[in-house]
């Protein structure tokens, strides 16, 4: 039977030294002495026979071998954390708090009946519903800070159940210059006009979703603010059908026919970022979301 030369604590210390930019800062964060961290990393390198870090000035830098080993070690320590959380959840009581990340693209009118059904069974659990957008929703899943996430984005390595669908429409005021154009609008024409975009809730947003080619863009935090600006004949915006359909029908807003993409369909999924760590309350809410979703109803009817 193989016997490990190294310990999980040694790998965690190495990760901290790299993540916090050196031994001094890592020691402060871990509440340990700097000498103990130096000793742990030195022993780790001796046990492996591989140099992992090089100290230049006051900062520690990874060697090429260190970069590979560090990347693999993060999977190791995360697996250990997940395993320990699973052990804690096997016989756990009902969790005191459940955090749900809900992307703004998900129709909230579908959420409220779910919460109404969940509440009598919630056993007093506090529910934190945090609205997210784009990369912010993705991070709720990949970083695991939410117990559940409702997302139109499915990060690599995760699974989810479809619970809703919607479409994004490009819209503007009926008196906007774009509304007067006939036939499908060339996307190049859009680039000359102000585009309203919804702020990504990630701490490190990544503009890799949607059409963002306008030379001038204004960023707002909510769909409601975007609609208010559109009603003042300011810019154009891609917005969900459940937000703008009634405004299009009443002719308060105009739906733009764009060449190659007059709408963008979205499927929203409910995802367990850390499925093995879910408590009974989280699992119940997850099942309730699936049970009451339009997708489940369509499946039953068929």
TrEMBL record:
Protein name: Transcriptional regulator, LysR family protein
Keyword Zinc-finger: no
Superkingdom of origin: Bacteria
Keyword Transcription regulation: yes
UniProt cross-references to InterPro entries, sorted A to Z: LysR_HTH_N, LysR_subst-bd, WH-like_DNA-bd_sf, WH_DNA-bd_sf
Xref: Pfam families: HTH_1 (PF00126), LysR_substrate (PF03466)
Span of domain HTH lysR-type: 6-63
GO molecular function: DNA-binding transcription factor activity; transcription cis-regulatory region binding
Family to which this protein belongs: Belongs to the LysR transcriptional regulatory family.
